[in-house]
Amino acid sequence: MDTAAEPRVPQTQVAEEGVAEAAPPAGKCPYSYPFHRPSAVEIPPLYDKLRADEPVAKVSLPSGDEGYIVSRYDDAKVVLSDLRFSRAATVEPGAPKLTHVPMPPNSLFTLDPPEHTRLRKLVAKEFTNRRIRELRPRVQELTDELLDRMAEQGGVADLNEALAFPMPVAVICELLGVPFEDREKFRNWSNAIVALTTLTQEEMMAERLAMAGYIWELVQVKRKEPGTDLLSALITAHDDENTLDEGELVMMAMTLLVAGHETTVSMIGACVLTILREPRLRAIVDEQPEKIGALVEELLRVNPIGDGGPLRITLTDVEIAGTVIPKGSAVMAAVASANRDERRYTAPAEVDVDRENSQHLAFGNGVHFCLGANLARLELEVAIASVFRKFPTLRLGTEVDQLRMKSGMLVHGLESLPVAW
Ligand code: HEM
């Protein structure tokens, strides 16, 4: 199928059967999160309805606990950045949970300031814009090597296996100083860590412990023989009074490894697929390389890899869009929905590289803003520009309706992305 000949496809098509979730009986917990996605290229149509009628909606979470989903842009931004919505409280005993598996308590994802500020400061200097710009030649080199190997496969490949998975994993493994040979282990471990409903509690805990054990051993090796990598730098990192203790070190490395590839892997697939389906976007990549940064921002906006940011817990009663969310409630900012909010964006489903208010929430907002945003942007720019330069005739190797998303996960990704050239 030559998708280059296809007409422009809106990113949100409300499938006829898509709005399966009907309004709930009064007082009952209405919707089950994660919501139904009719296909790999659509976000849950239920969000359109929630933004219009129930901007703060009660949901039942995979753990069985109840929570609230906040679906409009302005409100989601508040949930992400207002410290009355706590991350640390998600690991307090008795707090409502997303899944049955408790989140580890001492990670960037489960701390509030000032503890969060201290840890983040220790690691943030490795992720500054300048540090990341220095990585560009190496990211380009790794990408070119992978694309050369893909070319040798003949005229068809799974882009996930050929590029989207190995590139970000190679980058984050190199950055941290994790042996690249162990990347397959990381795929299983990080899949387990972002699983919502695909694994049992025991399976998830076992994978998490295995990963922690592996990193602990690696820390011992690096203590004896430090390298020039991030893990070695973190071992000696300190601010005025503090260094990272052993538990914090292991947790930080785990956080970076998982956050640093699961997300970008999924996003590379989603971005390339969007471009393959829209010839005018392909023309931007080919003819307006100066706009590739803006294109990446728009692709990030319309292609959410997760429905919502991680859970937060209200430290006090908080009113959002006229609804009082009681103290102690689980709340999720639905980034997938906020980034398509018609109150903020004209033609929100369209990828428009000339959009004026293009700022989005794909990397969050506030103190927890994605630490790896600059790295992710770099990887996406290099991946997109390189793949279409290397394979000018690249096209989708299957029908769109044959594509499958991994379901039951915190981070959504295509199971495979068959391409041909
Ligand atoms: C396209 C790829 C990526 C997307 C869409 C993404 C998105 C996000 C989002 C939505 C958050 C949470 C914001 C919140 O809830 O407040 C986050 C946090 C985080 N991300 Fe990313 N991310 C990506 C890539 C990366 C990469 C490559 C790394 C690391 C090397 C990374 C490391 C982190 C870390 C450490 C946090 C926690 C920050 C904190 O709580 O202080 N991410 N990311």
Q: What's the short version?
A:
The chain is an alpha+beta fold and 421 residues long. It has helices at 46-53, 73-81, 115-124, 129-134, 136-151, 159-164, 166-176, 183-193, 201-224, 230-236, 246-277, 279-287, 292-302, 335-338, 373-390, and strands at residues 31-32, 56-60, 66-70, 85-86, 156-158, 312-314, 318-320, 323-325, 330-333, 395-396, 418-420.
Mean of residue pLDDT?
86
End-to-end separation = 11 Å
**Please, how many helices?**
15
Order of helices and strands: EHEEHEHHHEHHHHHHHHEEEEHHEE
List the ions, cofactors and other small molecules found in this model. Answer: protoporphyrin IX containing FE
Q: What is the oligomer described by this structure?
A: single chain
Query: Would you identify the regions where 5 or more consecutive residues have pLDDT less than 50?
Result: 1-22
Largest sheet: 6 strands, mixed
Question: What is the total number of structural domains?
Answer: 1
Tell the overall outline. globular
CATH class: Mainly Alpha
Helix content: 40-55%
Radius of gyration: 21 Å
CATH architecture call: Orthogonal Bundle
- Strand order of the biggest β-sheet: 1-2-3-9-6-4
Secondary structural class: alpha+beta
